[in-house]
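sanity check this record:
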Amino acid sequence: MYERYIKRGIDFILALIVLPFVLFIIIILAPVIFISDPGPIFYNGSRRGRNGTPFKMFKFRSMYVNSPDVRNPDGSTFNGYNDPRVTAIGRFMRKTSIDEIPQLLNVLIGDMSFVGPRPTLATKSFDEVEVERRKRYDVKPGITGYAQAYFRNSISQEDKFRYDLYYVDHVSFKLDLKIMLQTVFSVIRRENIYVSREKNNDNR
């Protein structure tokens, strides 16, 4: 009941309330991002949503155009402090998580929720996804989630997956509120923003 109806109503109302703020941030940052490196303002990556349905996720572009795709040993995206692919404004946006703000548009549309497992890449058919991993797609992906709020980039993909399953099994208003409050604390403290490829490999 909560996950399918009440949660969506809360998401929609909150997204409408913060929409003016989101549009203001877009107006301010759009020229800065373009001047820093001429090209698209948004990075619209293909992500997998509820029931495995692909969707385009909005995000401010933080890298130079045509940057190479660098991965950690566990397949996750490399996110290092001195990553030369990241623009100056992109580094600031990542530290403050401002690059994630446009995903509020995905919440308004209904592709995402404020809280849920972080969206994964939609690089293959959902039929090719391992059966034991499909459970995480029983709920909508979120702007923030259990693993994101408490650990950000300090744990491996496998650990994040286990926390995602915990969330799916225990989704509730109380847990969502707890995750959102912890997310605020993590962003303010700027904890676990970066992780080296070596550390991610050790966590496998």
